[in-house]
Amino acid sequence: MTVRVMQTNEELMIARHVQRLIVRKGADFVPVCPRHFQRGRHERINLSPVRTTAVHGPLSEELLQRIQQYWQAANYLTIGQIYLQDNPLLREPLQVQHIKPRLLGHWGTSPGLSFIYVHLNRLITERDAQVIYLAGPGHGGPAILATVYLEGTYSEVYPDVSDLAGMRLLFRRFSTPGGVPSHVSVPTPGSIHEGGELGYVLTHAFGAAFDNPDLIVAAVVGDGEAETGPLEVLEERTLPQSCARRGGVTDPASQRVQDRESDRARPHQRRRRARDAHGHGYDVFFVEGDDPAAMHQAFAATLDTCYERIRDIQRDARENGVSDRVRWPAIVLRTPEGWTGPQAVHGVPVEGTFRAHQVPLSDVRTDPDQLKQLESWLRGYQPEALFDETGRLVPAFAALSPKGDLRMGANLHANGGTLAVDLDLPDFREYALAVEQPAVVRAESTRRLAEMLRDVFTRNAAQSNFRIYSPDEANSNRLGPVFDVENRCFVGKQIPGDEHLSPDGRVMEVLSEHLCEGWLEGYILTGRHGLYVTYEAFAMVSASMTVQHTKWLEEAVNLPWRDPIPSLNILLTSTCWRNDHNGFSHQGPGLIDVMLSKRGTVARIYLPPTPTACCRWRTTASAAATTSTLS
Questions:
Q1: How far is CA 30 from the centre of its chain?
Q2: Residues 550, 551, 555, 561: is their CA dihedral positive or negative?
Q3: Is pLDDT above 70 for 103?
Q4: What gap in Å lies between CA 278 and CA 270, rounded to an integer?
Q5: Is residue 428 within a helix (H) or strand (E), and if so which, with residue range?
Q6: What is the 3-state secondary structure (H, E, C) of 359-404?
Q7: How far is residue 15 from each of residues 87, 94, 280, 328, measured CA to CA in Å?
């Protein structure tokens, strides 16, 4: 097995320590040196061969075997959801009538997602860690459903899915009208990120980590997501808040399940990925291969190292303060697309190619050879050794799952309404303007709102559960009074003349509507409160995110086990009634047009009482928790 650790000049001592640790764990260490980042240099790295025997690492032989079989159970359930409508544990020979009439789902990314999930379970169990899991490749939904089912959370939420008959229901409901979506969506316990619209997994992850100092947010970034603009922008801000006051966000992993590359191309690709990730401010670890035993050991060792790195960063920040940015760990996991699936179909390569992305055996109902291949594939995971007569996971394997709320599917942070604490709000009437007679008083309503927000910060300082997110200058939106008591979040060196900047600042100001909306979504989905402020026209940049959030709310109100989350509030400024200054470019009530089509159970729009008012209210909310959107 090969593990590659990026080694940079400023972290030479850390890299050497990691090298010693990994070598001691039994994996090969290949440094990616700074010279490989020099422009125009394409020399090959001397690569060690993939290890297939004599595998060593932090896992005992017995634990390694159990983790492998647990992963096999997850893969078996994943395939069952895509293909089967009956005969869930192959207690009889597989026949055409056992196959769904329409095959939908994504196999290619699923083995990697469940591989990561299984190893996070070990980390949680050994460290009593609080971890939630965000699947950027949300189309790998069957893998997450499988792992949440194996840990027992799914059966607790949906009691009819708990035994052999329940497994049959799990398979039949997947990606079926009236069933459950193929993505990691609202009905999936433990999920706060649907993953259908790519680009936001790290944004949601950081939002969840803000003011959650003990929480680890495991964010998996898929290949396709890594190509999106919002993801690229967020990667430029790997530490948007003080590490003393936030939880850890790690990428276990930036999951690479691309088609196989030639040996000649691979070193170049590794150097490019290492260079890019390093440039974004991460401490990068590579875990690559296709031999399961070796990969289990290598990934376990790397995950332990990354966890310790996160805790060391937090400990140092809390004891010594924050003076500059730090490098958070990121893991680049490279595995074949459709790992452990069919190697080839009718002589055409499948595993490791684009053909494994969705349904690798697409004609099983009409092609007897494919039907036999599917049965052989399923039986290769040995379901008879994984599940008992009642269809439940064998206790020896079930013991690998964390217990209670430590299970990622049951973690309370992923059901944020259970942790939400109401804001201590002042009486809004205290901020009313005294108007002695009509048409003589000139005032800015957003400035009065800012005075109220200033007091909201003060009254809720102890519980630290309120933030403002703004893609433009808060001052230009007349929110300056909040800086009487609060600062902008800024982690970096300050220069003379800087004002109201602090690593612990609670005003998040960055010129990206995607980040502001996504940070706030992650924040409220984990039970906190906030306000997103943007010019009216530019709210359309993140409008599709707002729509996706309303879809989440629309389904969540129908799930009794999901507690209502705080509202997502949007204040729109520079409205269409003003034609001076920025003029036409900053006008456009498009977000209001979009939200008018939403149900009243999830959206509220508040307009000013007169056209001379410069503030317009608007809301996005659940039935139980009104979401105010100010504009």
A1: 29
A2: negative
A3: yes
A4: 12
A5: none
A6: CCCCCCCCCHHHHHHHHHHHHCCCHHHHECCCCCECHHHHCCCCCH
A7: 51, 52, 18, 13
The C-alpha atoms of residue 12 and residue 18 are separated, in whole angstroms, by 10
State pTM to two decimals. Answer: 0.84
311 phi-psi bin (left φ>0, alpha ψ -120 to 50, beta other): alpha
What is 206-251 written as a DSSP string? HHHHBT-TTEEEEEEBPTTGGGSHHHHHHHT-S-SS-TTSB-EEEE
- Whether the CB-CB separation of 413 and 209 falls below 8 Å is answered with no
Taking the C-alpha atoms of residue 463 and residue 412, their distance in angstroms, rounded to an integer, is 17
In the prediction, which pLDDT does 44 show?
A: 25
CA 73-180-177 angle, to 5 degrees, is: 130
Are 229 and 200 in contact, with CB atoms under 8 Å apart? no
Range scoring the smallest mean pLDDT among 110-114, 477-481, 585-589: 585-589
What are the tokens at 203? Answer: 């944004």
Tokens coding 235: 């990667």
Tokens read off for 362? 């697409």
Taking the C-alpha atoms of residue 28 and residue 101, their distance in angstroms, rounded to an integer, is 47
- In DSSP terms, which residues pair with 155 in a beta bridge? none
Tokens of 244: 């003393």
The letter for the amino acid at 74 is A
Q: What is the pLDDT of residues 530-562, one digit of tens each?
A: 999 998 888 999 999 999 999 999 999 999 999
